[in-house]
C-alpha cells in the first residue's frame, strides 16, 4: 500500500521547487525586495527558493510574531512590499497581530504559509491546522495555491500568482495591505533533482508579455474643486487636520500651498509626517502644539473652525477630537485615496476618495493667491506662545522626566533620522513636545491598530530599509512585550542593521496614571491590574542580546549617550557595517512625569488664553 | 452637540460594572477558577470585576500571547476552564496561537476581549479592529455581547452568557475548546457609582433555578461491543495505539484490562499519559520502545497487526505511522468521544464517538478472561530487549547528549511531577527514551498543533494549577520563542508559582539535522535558514527575569542540579511559597546528539531483530 505521505517515484526536479522558484522570481520581479523567513520543515521549498532568488534579500526570524512586525516596519519605511515565509500550524497564527496592523495601516505584505496538502488536512495529521482564510477579513486577498505536481503550467501559474499577490498588496483591489498565499506542499520537501532557479522560472517570471497591474489614484473632478474653493472664501475659518499617514515626499509642499492660499493652519500629528520637513520651516502654516492649546476650553471655543479638511487617519490627540466634537464645523471633508471613512465622531460632510496631494494642489490653484492671514496668524501666534511656554517649563527644571526625554531626543536626532515611536505614552509625549521642524526627519508609528506589540521588531525592520539612522522611542512595557524581537538586531545576525532604542522606563503602564481609573487606587487593585510594575533591569536584556547599553539619569548624561549612539552610527555608515542595537535606558519617575506633562499643558493653556485677552 | 464618546449623565452604578460583575460571578459559579488578565483601558470593567469576584484568582500578563498559553497550560493541567481578559485591538490578535492550540487540543478557555461599542467600529476610532469572529473556526462559540446600558435584565443576561460560555468551552456543543465573548463597553470605564460585586450580581449568579448544562459522554451499544469482542478472538494480533490525550486517572486501568483480556500490547505515546501510571508496572502490557522497535523493517513486518484500536490523537512517532501505513490492519478502530476523526493515513474501518474508558471496560468484559499471551509476550520480550539495549548504550558513554539528558531527567523526576514537554525534538527524545513507569508522573504537551511557541508560558500555567512539581523540558529555540513568558515566573509576581526549566541547548533547530534537507548543506544555506544558531547565553535571561540558573556539562553535575531543583521545591511545598523559576541549562552538541539518537535506534533495532531469529 502506498502511504499518503510517501514520496513519488520521480527523477525529475521536485515540483515544489519548480513552483516555488517561479513564485519568488515573480515576487522579486513585482517589487518585493526582502523576505522574512522563519525556520520550518514544511516550508523548506519556499525558504530555499527565496534565499536562492537573485534580487531578494532574506532575513531569518525564530519567532513568527516578531518576523511579522519586522516585515511591517520594513515595508512601512521602504514603501515596498515585503514577503513572509513560515511553516504550517501555529507559526502562521503568530503573524496575526502584524497582519492586523498592516491591514489597518495599509502596509503591503505578502504572507506565504506552508501547509499540508488538502488530503492531509482535518484528519489529525501533525502540525496541521485550518489555514484557509486564517486572517479573516484582514487580508486584501487570500489564495489557496495549487499543490505542486508535474503540471507543465506550474511556472506560469506561480509567476501569475506572484504578480497578482503583489498588486493586491499594493492596493489593486482598493487599499494596500497584507495578502495571504497558503501553499500546500507534498513530500519530498528537499530539493530532489532541482539545482536552482533555472531558465523555466526565469522565463515564467519574465515572459514575453508580462502582466502589468495598474490602478492610478483618483483625482477630484473640477466641480468638486470648485465647490471646495468656495468653502475657502475669505473669512472662512478653516483647518487642515492631518493624522498618521505614510510618508509622501510630495504631500508636504502641496498641503503648504493650500494652507497658504486659504490662510488655514495645519494641525499635524507627529505620525502625519507633516510636522517636520522642508515645508515646515519657521514661517510655515504648520502648528505644533494643537494638543495642548486645545485643552484650554477658552482657546478651543475661540478657535472653533468653520471648515476642516482631514487627511490621514484619526490623529492621536484626544483634545483635537473633543474640540471638533464640541464645535462641529459646518463642513468636514475626509480625504482618503483608498475609499475609507475615517470619521469616528460622525462629523464628515464630504468624503472624497481622491489623492490628497493632487487635491491640495488643485484646491490651492482654485483658491488663488490672497491676503487672508488673520486666522492663520492667530494660530501661529498661539503656537509661538505655546512653544515659548514649553521651553520655559523645560528650562526651569533639569530633571529627566518623560516629556523632557522626548523633547531632548527630538532635538538630538540626525537630520535624516527615522524615528519609530511606540504607542501608548511615547506618541502622546511626542505629540505634545515635538516642534515644527524643517529637517526631513521621518516619524513612523503603528497607528493602524495602536497596539504596543511588536515595537522592537517594527523598528528593526524599519532600520533594515536603510533609509536613515533609525531610532525607536518606546516605553518599558512595549519593550517587554517584544523583547525577543531584539534577536534580529544581534550583531552579526543581520549585517548592516543598526538601531538605537530609547526606552522611557517608568516600570509599568504609565498611561494608566493619566486615566480616571487611577483615582480609584487599591479599591480596583490599580498597581497590580493596571500599573503592572515588572522590575526588570534592561541591562541584562542588553547583555543577553549583545546590545549596547547606557543607563542615563541626567539630561547631560542622556545628551552624551544620544550623541554617542548617533555619531557611532554615522561613522560606520560609509562602511555599510551596522553596529547592531544600542539601548539608551532612561529610568523615569512615573508621577513626576505625569506632573511634568500636566505642568506643560497648564503653561500652554495659560499662554493660549493670554493671547485671547 | 453630544460627542459619541461622552459619558452619560447618571449617578446610578456604571452599567459596565453591573454587567461585568454578573459575568464573572457566573464564570466563577460555572467552574472557572482563574482569570489571566492583560492590562488595558477599554477592558477596565472586566479586569476590576474579575479581580473583585470571590472565588476567582487572577494573574496579570503584559503579553497577551504569553497570557493565552499560560491559560492553556493551566486549563490543561487542572482540567478546568480558564478565562482570559484583554483590551481591544491587536491585544486580542495575540491570543490566536494559544486559541488554535486549545482548539485542536480541546482545552477549555473563555476568551473575553473588550471592544469599542458598535457605533465606534469601522470609523477609524483608535485601537479599534474588527473583533467579530476574530478567531474564525477555532472557537466553539462566539458571542458579541450586548453593550451594557440601563436595562434591568443586564445581570440575568450576564449570568446566562457566562454559564453558556463555560458549557460550550467544556464541550456542550461537541468537543471542549476555546470560546470567545466580545465585550463592547462604552465610556465611562471606571467604576463610577459601583462599589463591588453586590446582591444583584450574586442573585443573578445564583438564581432560584440555576441553569445546568449536561452532555454525558456517549457509550457504545451492546451490538458494537459484541462486534468488537469478535475482533479480539484468540489468535488475533491486536494493538492498542494511544496518542496524546488529556490525563484521565480512570483510563489507564480500563485500557490495561482490555489489553490483558485480549492479549494485546499498548503502544503508549509519552503524552498519552498511559506509559506511566499505576497500570504501567513491570508486568504491564504497555510497551515503551515502539518508536525504535518499528524502525526495524524486519520487526515491523513480523509484528504487523490484524486489529488496531486507536485512542487519543495521532501519536508523535513517525515509525508507528509508517508501520501501519505499510502493513494496513484489517480493522482499525478510531475512538473519539467528541466525534473527531484522527486518521491521517486513511486506515480507519470504524470510527466510534464513545467514551474510551467505558468502551475499554465493556470490551474487556465481553472478551472475558483468556490465555492469549504469545503475541503480547513477543512484544514484551522485544520491549525488554530494547530497554536493555538503551541502557547499554547509555552506560557505555558518560557524555551528556540530548537523549541522555532526557533519560536522566525522567529518572530524576519526583513521583508526582508534571512534565511539560516541548515539541520538535524534546517530545521525540522522550518518546524514544522514556521507560514504562508505574509512577503517576503526568506528561503534558501542546500536541494540538505541535507548535514550539508558548512553551514557557504553557508550563508556568501548568505550574499554577498546583497539581505537582512542574518541569518544562524544552529546546533552546522554543525557549527563545517564548522568552518573555518568563516574566510570569518572576519571583514575587505570582506567589507560589514554581517551575524547573530544563533546556537542551544545541544552539538552533536540532530537528533539521534529522531531516533530508540537512544533506544539502550550504547549497540550501542550511545553517542560516534551518539550523539558525542564535548564540544566546541563557544565564543573562535568568538574570533578567530573576530565575535560578545552573549550567551543567556533565551527567554528574546535571543530576546534582536536578536534585537541587526538586528538593528545593519539595522543602517549600508545605509553606505554599514558590521559589519561582529555575533554569537547568544543558548545552548539547548537535551532531553528537544526532549520533547518540541513531546509535540508540540501531541498538534497539539489532535487539529487536535478534528476537526474530
Protein model, in words:
Two copies of one chain form a homodimer. Chain A is α/β, with parallel strands linked by helices and 613 residues long. The first copy, chain A, folds into three domains: 15-205, Rossmann fold (3-Layer(aba) Sandwich); 222-372, TPP-binding domain (Rossmann fold, 3-Layer(aba) Sandwich), CATH 3.40.50.1220; 402-588, Thiamin diphosphate (ThDP)-binding fold, Pyr/PP domains (Rossmann fold). Helices cover 39% and strands 14% of the residues of chain A. The first copy, chain A, has helices at 15-29, 44-52, 64-78, 90-93, 96-105, 154-169, 199-205, 222-231, 251-262, 290-293, 297-302, 318-326, 356-367, 374-395, 402-412, 425-433, 455-464, 476-481, 526-531, 538-544, 555-573, 590-610, and strands spanning 34-37, 57-60, 82-86, 109-115, 141-144, 178-184, 238-242, 266-268, 286-287, 307-311, 331-335, 350-352, 418-421, 442-445, 470-475, 498-505, 548-551, 580-587. In chain A, the strands form three sheets. In chain A, strands 2-1-3-4-6-5 form a six-stranded parallel beta sheet, with helices on both faces. In chain A, strands 9-8-7-10-11-12 form a six-stranded parallel beta sheet, with helices on both faces. In chain A, strand 10 (307-311), helix 12 and strand 11 form a beta-alpha-beta unit. At the A-B interface, helix 2, helix 4, helix 5, helix 12 and helix 18 of A face helix 2, helix 4, helix 5, helix 12 and helix 18 of B.
Total number of beta strands of chain A: 18
The whole-angstrom Rg of chain A is: 26 Å
Give the number of domains of chain A: 3
Instruction: Give the % helix of chain A.
Output: 25-40%
Q: What is the chains' assembly state?
A: homodimer
Distance between the termini of chain A: 93 Å
Which fold does the CATH topology of the largest domain in chain A refer to?
Rossmann fold
